[in-house]
Amino acid sequence: MKRVAVIGGGMGGLTAATRLAAKGFHVTLYEANDRLGGKIGEIEQAGARFPLGPTVFTMRDAFEEFFDYVGAAFEDYLTTIPLDPVARYFYPDGTTLDARRDPGAFERELVEKLGEKPGALGDYFDYARAIHETGAPLFLWSDFSTLRAFRKPGSIATALNLNKLDPFRTMHQANDFFFDDERTARLFDRYATYNGSSPYRAPATLNLIAYVENVLGAYHVKGGVLAIVNAIERLAERVGVEIKRGVPVERIVVRNRRVAGVVVNGAFETYDAVVSNADVERTYDELLEGGRRRRRLFTTAPSTSGLLFLWNVERAHDNLAAHNVFFSEDYRLEFRQLGKERRLPDDPTAYVHIPAKMEPETAPAGTENWYVLVNAPASEDPYDAETIDRARSSILARVKANSGIDVADAIVAETTRTPRDLERETGATLGSIYGPSSNGRRASFLRQRNKARGVEGLYFAGGGSHPGGGVPLAALSGKHAADLLFRHNYERFPSL
Ligand SMILES: Cc1cc2nc3c(=O)[nH]c(=O)nc-3n(C[C@H](O)[C@H](O)[C@H](O)COP(=O)(O)OP(=O)(O)OC[C@H]3O[C@@H](n4cnc5c(N)ncnc54)[C@H](O)[C@@H]3O)c2cc1C
What we know:
With 496 residues, this protein is an alpha/beta fold. Helices cover 36% and strands 19% of the residues.
């Protein structure tokens, strides 16, 4: 039986490990922390529960496929609740708008509240559907690195319809074209942040994210996104993955350009292959022997990080939904400060998730658990108390200005988490949430492939590698890494 070491128990590592063990490999998963999940975490504070990372769940199909692959049923392990509204938007001019799950109801909101022309939303979703249907088979569901990936029927269709991917405009240019009102374009521009990019730089291809969330569906996972990690952990154990928590891998040992094993606790352990779910740059620079030489050039900047506030708010607000967005005055300026100036925006758009709206038992009765996230550059800035206080004040002012809600005197307990905290806890370079950003047309071609070049037996799974960041894509990276590893071990012509 082939022995595989998986480095890291984030979504990519867990899914790769479970798939490989289900196929009969002897898999050991090493996780540096004493808990699994990586960026997917949770804390308890003053009697309320708060997520630390992802809050929205999309692309259920990626998980249904995973559960099916390992012989289990998604519904037996997880309960998902469709979000309606998907999100509530609060604009600086006082307009409040619900992105309703039903496209007809969503369109009525846009027409009645923003004066948008009837039919524009339908046209936009048709356009975004075409991007998704054209791009997903090759860019998401295949490993994008072998001839076989390009020979699948869906991939051939992609190759023949590249223009449908809309790669030459930016997201914002396309959104501005479809909608009359700047506020509608802004609502859809926001999806660039789902992989830590800027709508003014990322290709319009990423407008498929709006389709995935608004048409294919966004969900709340009962128990939070961490429940997915817990479910996969149970499956991993069921199929025999040996999980070692609190055991960081110190080095990946290479002999004759082939992985020979890993070093843990100062001792060498033999393995036939390694799947790294650790940050890609760190894997090359710190784990892989001779890795600095082998590292391909990372020509794209890191995706954004976030500054996260967790507030116990001592009252409840009927006019808030589970997911709320309070837009800043000047969205373009915000991204310029994040990108070019690489600093916290002066007036950041605030995303406020309140888990108690979906699961009241997550906060004491009559109170709310506010998860408040603003975009921040990936950075080693330690964020002094003054910087954090300034961001906190501008968020409170923005929420009040857009909605009239003033919670400044109702926050009874709080925690702040900076990009540095994320880096320290998950090893993400500069606290970048999604690995390299997708700014620029070539970005998806520059991502680390799921099988390393130049070192046999080394594979990558995780948000920094293909197909990208976010919970479902990280899970797909685990699929690609495991499939490639399997084929390279058991097929004569694994690429064909
Ligand atoms: C604030 C925030 C909000 C987010 N919101 C969303 C959202 O709403 N929806 C969504 O889909 N996604 C969201 N994401 C992104 C999503 O959480 C990530 O893309 C995904 O979880 C990354 O998974 P991964 O496989 O890359 O592993 P990671 O989570 O990066 O985990 C890597 C693991 O490897 C371990 N490790 C590293 N080095 C070693 C070593 N040497 N030895 C052993 N172990 C090691 C680390 O400890 C870590 O546990 C959010 C993330 C954050 C932080």
